[in-house]
């Protein structure tokens, strides 16, 4: 009887003799090797399927479960020879190192009780995970997104704790609509919404991409901060968290537009943290590494993507949106007292490399 399930991490599935052959075969058919999945080894198989964009169809889970249970390779699917034991490239420290301990979300009841928190990008990915965590910890969430359907699903799941606001954060009028939904009092603001670029280097980037990335990743957060800060100052406190990126810490994680936008958002964070220090308003940033969110990524620009691909092999792990929400909600909460102007890498150690 197989001891792997759809909730088992990918590393366990690759180690399973029969199912591992199927997985490696599918990768090979797509021109990939298992090294391409290195950052995702800790992800549950079912999560990898959800975020694969159809490269790993949902039916694959049942096929792999059957293969693991029966020890028989399925017909009609590409398979690869059994994996050979790889020689270790790590020095022998003489210390036994086990598999990483799985993380389980620990909700803190009442942490956001009596507070209204604005979360942008709340219909999916990191924003949805942040909104969910706040609502389950007693907060009232003003959930902002361009996707009305996504917000409706979030509200149906979390109930009256969610106030959905369908809005484009680049629209100057959207900030006032968000404040109105918050009844004028914002205890905390999470600027999560953002868009990727196509990895284009500066000689490849076009005006449309540059303008869109800057408007959503920089101007949108600035407008919401500008709207929320006066009320926070009047109330004697508030917390703002801007979600930047690993691309805010280095030049090799994305293209010119995205990297510039995230560096700019760090600048906005640090300037504002200094300007409002001592007022009770705290402004910090979280810099995620690779996250399993399924965020749409445009077709890659030829030159820039070839350059950034060489550096992405250093990504140590792929995080779940809920793991990022744990970092972000800490800084949004009153537990972040005395933290102001911090840029917290939540990247599994990527920025330490």
What distinguishing features does this structure have?
353 residues; two-stranded parallel ribbon; 11 helices; seven-stranded parallel β-sheet
Description:
This protein is globular. The protein is an alpha/beta fold. It is built from 11 helices and 9 strands. The longest helix is centred in the middle third of the chain and has 29 residues, at 207-235. Helix content is 40%, strand content 12%. The relative contact order is 0.12. The chain has 2 domains: 10-70, no CATH class; 116-352, NAD(P)-binding Rossmann-like Domain (Rossmann fold), CATH 3.40.50.720.
The oligomerization state is: single chain
Average predicted local confidence, pLDDT:
89
User: What composes the largest sheet?
Assistant: 7 strands, parallel
Strand content: 5-15%
Tell me the Rg in angstroms: 22 Å
- How many angstroms does the end-to-end distance come to? 40 Å
Low-confidence stretches: none
Q: How many β-strand stretches?
A: 9
> For the largest beta sheet, what order do the strands appear in spatially?
3-2-1-4-5-6-9
Helix content: 25-40%
Going by CATH, the architecture of the largest domain would be 3-Layer(aba) Sandwich
Structural class: alpha/beta
Number of helices: 11
Overall 3D shape: globular
CATH homologous superfamily name of the largest domain? NAD(P)-binding Rossmann-like Domain
Q: How many individual domains?
A: 2
CATH topology description of the largest domain: Rossmann fold
Order of helices and strands: HHHHEHEHEHEHEHEEHEHE
What's the CATH C level of the largest domain?
Alpha Beta
């Amino acid at each position: 009887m197989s001891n792997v399930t759809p909730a088992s991490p990918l590393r366990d599935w690759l180690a399973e003799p029969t199912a591992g052959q199927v997985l490696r075969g599918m990768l090979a058919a797509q021109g990939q090797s298992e090294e391409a999945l290195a950052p995702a080894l800790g992800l549950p198989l079912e999560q990898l399927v959800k975020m694969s964009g159809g490269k790993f169809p949902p039916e694959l889970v049942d096929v792999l479960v059957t293969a693991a249970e029966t020890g028989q390779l399925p017909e009609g699917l590409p398979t690869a020879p059994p994996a050979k034991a790889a020689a270790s490239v790590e020095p022998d420290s003489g210390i036994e190192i086990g598999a990483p301990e799985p993380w389980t979300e620990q909700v803190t009841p009442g942490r956001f009780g009596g507070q209204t928190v604005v979360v942008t990008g709340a219909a999916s990915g990191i924003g949805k995970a942040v909104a969910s965590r706040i609502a389950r910890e007693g907060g009232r969430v003003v959930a902002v997104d361009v996707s009305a359907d996504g917000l409706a699903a979030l509200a149906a799941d979390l109930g009256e704790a969610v106030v959905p606001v369908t809005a484009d954060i680049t629209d100057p009028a959207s900030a006032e609509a968000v404040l109105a939904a918050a009844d004028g009092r914002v205890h905390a603001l999470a600027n999560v919404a953002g868009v990727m670029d196509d990895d284009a280097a500066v000689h490849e980037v076009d005006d449309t991409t540059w303008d869109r990335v800057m408007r959503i990743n920089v101007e949108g957060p600035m407008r919401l901060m500008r709207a929320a800060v006066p009320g926070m100052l009047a109330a004697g406190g508030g917390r703002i968290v801007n979600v930047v990126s690993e691309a805010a810490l280095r030049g090799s994680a994305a293209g010119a537009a995205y990297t510039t936008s995230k560096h700019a958002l760090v600048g906005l964070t640090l300037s504002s943290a200094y300007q409002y220090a001592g007022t009770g308003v705290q402004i910090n940033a979280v810099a995620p590494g690779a996250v399993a969110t399924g965020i749409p990524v445009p077709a890659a620009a030829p030159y820039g993507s070839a350059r950034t691909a060489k550096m992405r092999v250093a990504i140590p792990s792929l995080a779940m949106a809920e793991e990022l929400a744990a970092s972000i909600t800490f800084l949004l909460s009153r537990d972040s007292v005395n933290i102001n102007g911090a840029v917290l890498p939540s990247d599994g150690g990527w920025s330490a490399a």
